[in-house]
Amino acid sequence: MENSTSYATGIDISPRAIEMLRKIMEEHNLSDAYFSICVVGGQSIGFQYNINIKSTYNKEEYVLEVKNGLNVLLHKDSLGYLKNTKIDFDEKRNGFIF
Question: What is the pLDDT of residues 6-16, one digit of tens each?
Answer without folding.
Answer: 555 678 888 89
